[in-house]
Structures are given as structure tokens and as C-alpha cells.
Amino acid sequence: MDATTLLLVLTIVGVVLAGLGAGILLGFAAGVLPGMRRVDDGAFVGAFRAINKGVMNPLFLGPLFLPLFALGAAAIVGLSRGTATPIAAAASASDATTTPGEAVVLLFAAAALQLAGVIGVTLGANVPRNDALERDGGREPRAARAAFERPWTAWNAVRTLAAVASTVLAVIALALL
Q: Can you tell me where the transmembrane regions are (predicted)?
């Protein structure tokens, strides 16, 4: 497979995975969390503990963690390919072989948002709160919920926005290829 085809395939895979990840996070924020706000404290804690166990599967984790690798690999292939994008090539034929194009820059930015905004927030903010909720087995449900719900929801909003922004950048990069 030549570098141009590999770049296109990796970018398409990255766009699909990033879109799925953003959809999972947005669906959770828009559907699950509003429903969880309607239940009592004991049901909330019990349901979140069950959800935290249930999401440990490739259909959930893949779209959250794999876009980084697909988009990062696409950016590296695009950079190493030495060819810019059609836009950059039209701007200057001599620069097009040495300057990364707009698509490559957008792919790096999309990968960076996945790393910092999705994976970093998930592992640095959401998972530790999930673990704390699990460890607080003997805690009164109202106190456990009070310590968990607001910060977890805020960090989920951050990673959802990062996932959506990453997807948008990756789609624009794909359009530029």
C-alpha cells in the first residue's frame, strides 16, 4: 500500500472511531446522565457501579482509545510522505514536497485532543472517581453521590467536547486530502 492510500485509510478509520467515541460520550451525557439525575441516591450509586463494570468491553473502550492511534498514525504518515495537501500544492509547488499541509496539522491537532481531552481526562479524572465510588462501598449513598456526581459530570462534558472537536478536525482533514 502506498503512503497516500495508507494516509487516506488511517484518516477514514480515525474519523469513524473518533465519531463513534464522541457519540458514545454525547449519548451518555445527553441520555444516561439526565435519567440518572431522576433516581434516588442508592439507585444512582448502584447504577453507576454497574455501568462502570459494564463499560469494560471493546465496543466501549475501542472508540475511546483507538482514535488516538489511527489519527496519530495518519498524521505521521502524512508528515513522512513529504507531500502536503492539494491546497498546499496549489499554493506553491516547491513548498508542497517539504511542508506539511493543513490536513496533517489538523490530524496532529485531532490526535492531541484525543490524547489530552479524551484519554487524559478519562484516565486522570473520570476513572479515579469511578474507582473511588467503587471503594466507597460502605459510604452512605447520599454522601457517595455528592462526592461523585458533579465533578464526574463536569469532566465528562470536557471529554465529550474534546471528542467532538477532534472528530470535526479529523473530518476537515479528510476533506483536505
A: 6-33, 54-77, 103-125, 157-176
